[in-house]
Amino acid sequence: MNAYGRIYVIDNNALVFIKREHRASNFFKQYCRIPNEVLHEADGFPDIDDLRQLEYPVTAGVLAWLTAVMDTVPVNDTALVNLYHNQGNADPLVVATALDGHHCSNDGALFGPTWTVVSGDEAVQNKAREFGLDAMTNPEFLSVLEGESQQRPC
């Protein structure tokens, strides 16, 4: 499947990894969505106003998926979320957003885009895969972006 058959849900560590020039690309603007809590974490970015245009809002559906995601996290597991150290606050929301997008955009359709989680956090990638989503590391996603910039004229 080519990149146009995907929607990418971006974690904050991916935003940092790919840098501003890639975040400004037409491909990124067209095929990427950023959960609200990730935007909160990225508040100091110089291009935050542009990134806000890609926001995937927290809806009742996202919250329902968030509950489903958190139901699979054992109480003593701090790999995905560690509230005591203020780590991973957006991570379950990244997965819940991708699940909501997948189920809403493909609702009633025979085929739809593949919602793909992009994160450098292995716990986020694993949780996405646990729910049947595709997941991509930050370097893998950077390769997609760089491949697009080489194929398309500016």
Automatic annotation (TrEMBL):
It comes from Arthrobacter globiformis. This is Uncharacterized protein.
